[in-house]
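This follows on from our talk about sequence and fold. I would like you to pick a protein and set down its sequence and fold. Go ahead and set the record down below:
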Amino acid sequence: MVFMDDNFLLSNETARVLYHQYASAMPIIDYHCHIPAEEIAKDIRFSSITDLWLGADHYKWRAMRSNGVPEELITGSGDPFEKFEAFAATLERAIGNPLYHWSHLELQRYFNITEPLTKESARRIYDQCNAVLQDPDMSARGIIRRSNVKLLCTTDDPADDLRWHRLLAMDTTFSVKVLPAFRPDRALDIEKKDFISYIKGDLSRACGRSIELYTDLKDALHERIEFFAQNGCKVSDHGMPYVCYAPSGDVQAEAIFRKALAGEPVDLYEQLQYKTNLLSFLASEYTKAGWVMQLHYGVKRDNNTKLFLQSGANNGCDCIDDYTPCAELADFLNSLCVKDSLPKTILYSLNPIDNAAIGTIIGCFQDSSCAGKIQQGSAWWFNDNKKGMEEQMTSLANLGVLGNFIGMLTDSRSLLSYTRHEYFRRILCNLIGTWVTNGEYPCDLTTLGGLVSDISFSNCNRYFDFGLTV
């Protein structure tokens, strides 16, 4: 068996045909990522493969810590080659980890390197990668072009002035669309220490007036939604431990909001009431705007206080949360549905045991306005590995309509992460090909090829109304 050859992960002939003839050439829509628009607008370059690979990748940081690498060679100021060598030594021990596949796909697709990365080969590969990075096409924009990306959505706070998105929209030399996504977590997180400074500072300045009342906050968020929409936004995103449902009226929400702004403690139930009320308001605004609402939940963040104080959030110290109140999620969606204010919605749980629950919940709220109006999002974060993707898609197929699935996203800060779309497409084609090989679906390549093309690109394009062409 050849290591990661053209038929990598494609275990049967149907899978090979579906991938090579239908999936592989489809463009990429990355509808949720964390690449800063500023990096794309400035078309940044990278000083070394260490800078590109290890500068902001908490997946790699976690693995390196698990291999006993000192923090100086992970997030510290260690020598760039020594950091790369430490990752190489880690990678050769990471059998079964998707990092092993992702890293080698990136070496193959962007650097034409097929040699496995080990501690022994690290110097050769480091030097070859750094030489390739001198190529004019290996800038931020060049990498995005080479990846066959048609459109990507960043992740942006409501207070963002979107200056980099506006500059990119006016730049005729770059044809890839870079659209903002509205992420109002800081307005919802009433329990956080920076809530008051955010409301009275960043958000107030963005709106050009003070925010003293809950009605002021809703007016401000309405204005920011309109501003984002004027700049091409079609999607919101929310990160939360879980989707709560503690209904309250605006009078109660006003009292809780003013209490928090006064610096008084807000108890847990009041927090849930406030969040339910505000998220319900936002969902109605998204419905009016024709936006998609994404809900990411099931994560417990920043567990290692020592590392958090040393290097901040997003440092690889998050974990799966096992508190999964799916009944509250269903009640929340129902409360929107009865008011005709349920937008297109994508649900992602970090806990894989939620797959079946999500599959049954989304079936309760589909309607004729859009095929697959309520989606189960692609296997997320700790689940975007081979088994996790297979389990998510199998569950979705068992309980819903897999053919309407909107497919993969990177959810990444790394410009080389677009190989994850290839990884996903190979797994998708192999899953479908296996069902065909087992006699569970007819070998109708026209129908199957259409399904694969749709899940790879067309469903997403239609769902978000991006209006792209292949």
Q: What stands out?
A: The chain has a mean pLDDT of 97. The radius of gyration is 23 Å.
